[in-house]
Structure formats: C-alpha cells, structure tokens
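Before relying on records like the one below, remember that each one covers exactly one chain. Contacts with other chains, cofactors or solvent are not represented anywhere in the record.
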Amino acid sequence: MSGHSKWSTIKRQKGAADIKRGLTFTKVANAITVAVKQGSSGDPNSNPKLRMVMESARAVNMPKENIQRAIDRGLGKLPGQVVEEVIYEGFGPGNTYLYVEGITDNKLRTNQEIKSIFERNGGRLGGQGSTAHMFEKVGEIKVKGRGGSKDDEMLELIDLGVKDMIDYLDKNIQKYLVYTESSEFNTMGNKITRIGFEVESQELVMKPMNLQSITDPDLLKKVIEFVERLEELDDIQKVYDNFRD
C-alpha cells in the first residue's frame, strides 16, 4: 500500500472545513447542477452522481433552498443560468503536475483567472493531455476505523480487493483512504459497509501514478500556496497534484 504526502491527500479530504462557508456552497451548488444535467434527473435515487454530491451538500449543512435552486438550474428551470465542466492541465513550481477540474457559467472568465494564477505563481498551463497521463481515475472511499488493531483492520480491507490504501489519524481517530477501480466504486463501498466499517465519503478522483518528493521548504511553500490559490476560486472543484513532502 502506497504512502502520500499529508498535504495532498488528508488536507484535501477535509476541504469543507478549510474553505469559507459561502465558497463551499458555491462549489457544491455547481456540482449539483452538473450532476443533474449529466444524469438528466433531479432525483438522487435514480442519479448516482447526484447522490454523491448531495452527501457533500449535507456535510456542509447546505440549506435546502440552495440545493433545490441548484437542481432547478440543472433541469433548465432557471433560464439563462447555464454551467459547464472545464478541465485545466499544467505545471506548478518545481515542475509539479496539476490536473484541475472546474464548473463555470463563464468559461472566458475562468480561463483568464486560471491563466493569471499559473503565470503569476511560477507555473505554466499545458495543452489537453499534457498531464492527464500522470493520473488515473479511481474510486476514493474515506473509511472510519472501528477502534481495533490498525493492522487487522487494514488486512480486512485489503482482503476485499482494494487497489490501494492510506492510513492516517484524524483527531486521534484511525481512518483510511481506500482506492478502488472506478468500475468497482459503488460495489466496494457496499462491501466495506457490510463488514462493519463506516464509510464517511466516496468519490471518483484523479490519483497521481508517480509522486514527486519536494524537500526544499521554500519550494514546498510555493507549491502549496500555488495549489491553494487555485482551490480558492469559486469555479474550481478539485485540484490534483503529484507532489509529496
């Protein structure tokens, strides 16, 4: 089972707690709208992607009226409000690889904001496919330990056939990030629940295939600040990188 930097995995999983409340609502609302459009349904029971996003909405205590407005926008009930998904690939300080997912109602504006951040912070935008090959789409499941032996719990999860796994402590509670093939995503979540673990969240992510170690503290600071600036944009949903400290 592979390791990963504390910054680029664990912190990213706590996103809602680290982002201003209003900014989080904007990101979740955009994700709800796109999920509704792609699934052609505002019913989470028949739209798996919407069901996953709704879990994020509940996690940040998003008001019901905000959720319904985002669903209505996805169903085309709010004229003039159209959003689309955007992908950006590029390189950060120290030639780190970045894969950025966003949702926007003004692609020109978002393009300009992203370009500005890359150019002003020691990075450079790449073309389509310039960094995507350094990542693989997998299912990521956040699992809460049951309070027993970490080694025993990890063996139980491994026996289920997970692709990869990272263990970590969150407020002195043992937790695990379990990775699985995207095609087995929902099935694995059900398997984990059946053997008595609590699944706190699950989503499809772009996981780096090779990690780049950064030992220079000044460079590490630059890379972290660069990623943070991207994550702070309303239109950006996820920023994936390949660095470790």
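The first strand starts at residue 84 and ends at 92.
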